């Protein structure tokens, strides 16, 4: 993690004053609020944990495994309208690992951490 990286919730996802179903479709399509908010909070906690172990300036090689998700079709969330997936791209950071003499060591693992963004 670069020292210039700011850890925090992106785009004001915290403090939503309405339910997701009350937002316009174009707003909902920017993020899947349920998954994105939970994933962001979990990732923030993990990054802060790495910083507390002085790993924020780690310069040696590391491996990040990312699973990309589709952007086709439609998706329905709650009582709101179906949201076109084509307006978003989602991905999952599966693991981050560092090499060790006994093989790779996973320092981050979150196979259910779907993150979404507008392409």
Main β-sheet description: 4 strands, antiparallel
- Class from helix and strand fractions: alpha+beta
Order of helical and strand elements? HHEEEEEE
* Number of strand segments: 6
Any idea what the shape is?
A: globular
Poorly predicted spans: 1-16, 27-31
As a whole number of angstroms, the C-alpha radius of gyration is: 17 Å
**Helix share, percent:** 10-25%
Please tell me the overall pLDDT. Answer: 62
State the helix count: 2
Our count of domains comes out at: 1
| Relative strand content | 25-35%
Distance between the termini: 23 Å
GO molecular function, one term: histone binding
GO biological process, one term: V(D)J recombination
Domain V(D)J recombination-activating protein 1 RNase H: 64-119
Protein name: Recombination activating protein 1
In words, what does this structure look like?
It is a single chain. The chain is α+β, with helices and mostly antiparallel strands and 119 residues long. The chain has one domain. Helix content is 22%, strand content 26%. The chain contains two helices and six strands; from the N terminus they run ααββββββ. The protein has helices spanning 25-30, 33-52; strands at residues 63-68, 74-76, 82-84, 89-98, 105-109, 114-117. The strands form two sheets. Strands 1, 4, 5 and 6 form a four-stranded antiparallel sheet that branches. Strands 2-3 form a two-stranded antiparallel ribbon. The longest helix is centred in the middle third of the chain and has 20 residues, at 33-52. The radius of gyration is 17 Å and the shape is globular.
């Amino acid at each position: 993690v670069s020292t210039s990286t700011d850890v925090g919730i992106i785009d004001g996802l915290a403090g939503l004053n309405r339910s997701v179903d009350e937002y316009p479709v174009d707003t909902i399509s920017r993020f899947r609020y349920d998954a994105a908010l939970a994933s962001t909070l979990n990732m923030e906690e993990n990054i802060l944990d790495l910083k507390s172990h002085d790993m924020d300036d780690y310069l040696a090689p590391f491996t990040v495994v990312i699973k990309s998700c589709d952007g086709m079709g439609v998706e329905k969330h709650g009582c709101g309208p179906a949201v076109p997936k084509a307006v978003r791209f989602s991905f999952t950071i599966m693991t981050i690992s560092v090499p060790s003499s006994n093989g790779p060591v996973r320092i981050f693992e979150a196979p259910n951490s779907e993150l979404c963004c507008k392409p």
